[in-house]
Design goal:
By secondary structure, the protein is of the alpha/beta class. It has helices at about 5-20, 45-55, 70-85, 95-110, 125-135, 160-170, and strands spanning about 25-30, 60-65, 90, 115, 135-140, 180-190, 195-205, 210-220.
Length: about 230
């Protein structure tokens, strides 16, 4: 499972489990630079908490040179295939043909099947569908005009989603945040055995770029399982 800790990859984990796949390992490529076209830039500490909450091993690789983005994925997937016996690469891709093509090419080179359960999802209702499913996710970065910086670090509610749908019509950002308009971090989901807690601060670069910088994250016991 190619995992970023965001809403799409977390939902894809759930869909994979529902389809009968055993998700044996989470794989995260972490770029140490901004504005990667291929990868999100997840928090390593948050990823560790999420992996523990899911009860699934985590394998990561740091990346310092954007020219090596595809090679880093190939090397990492080859390693996890050998160690965990992986046969299928699960993706959280929704509509980025660029990402799907490159990830599929690497998977094919390693003789891995590709499972992209969210591909082509109806984006206008997608965020509400995630809330219906039981995902709780916060905005941790914004890279588009029109998305309020006040939402950084906030767990999105249905009221927030309704507001964002109206703003997306006005400003043209993608309501599912595909393409990097915004990035999310999942704090709770049906398969999580613990809830992730965050502490951090907001860093606003401009009126269309801002980040929630994570200072500390931890795990909190859940009252009961929802799955």
């Amino acid at each position: 499972m190619l995992y970023t800790g965001g809403k799409d990859s977390t939902f894809a984990v759930h869909r994979a489990v529902e389809s009968g796949l055993e998700v044996s390992v989470l794989v995260s490529i972490i770029p140490h630079y901004n504005y990667s076209l291929l990868y999100h830039k997840p928090s390593f500490e948050a990823l560790k908490c999420q992996a523990h909450a899911l009860g699934i091993p985590l394998e990561t690789a740091g990346l310092c040179d954007e020219r090596n983005e595809v090679q880093a994925l190939y090397t990492t997937l080859r390693r996890v295939k050998d160690v965990y016996g992986v046969k299928t690469l699960v993706l959280g891709a929704i509509k980025s043909k660029y990402q799907l093509r490159l990830f599929s090419e690497v998977a094919n080179a390693l003789q891995l099947e590709v499972y992209a359960p969210l591909w082509g999802v109806a984006e206008e209702d997608y965020l509400n569908r995630l809330l219906d499913y039981g995902l709780e996710f916060a905005l941790i970065s914004i890279a588009s005009m029109g998305i309020p910086m006040s939402l950084l670090g906030k767990v999105l509610s249905r009221e927030d989603v309704a507001m964002l749908k109206n703003l997306s019509l006005k400003y043209g950002f993608n309501i599912s945040f595909e393409g990097g308009d915004a990035e999310t971090l999942v704090l709770n989901a049906p398969l999580f055995k613990y809830r992730v807690s965050l502490r951090g601060y907001t860093r606003v670069i401009s009126e269309y770029e801002g980040y929630y910088e994570i200072v500390k994250c931890g795990l909190v016991k859940k009252q009961s399982s929802n799955f």
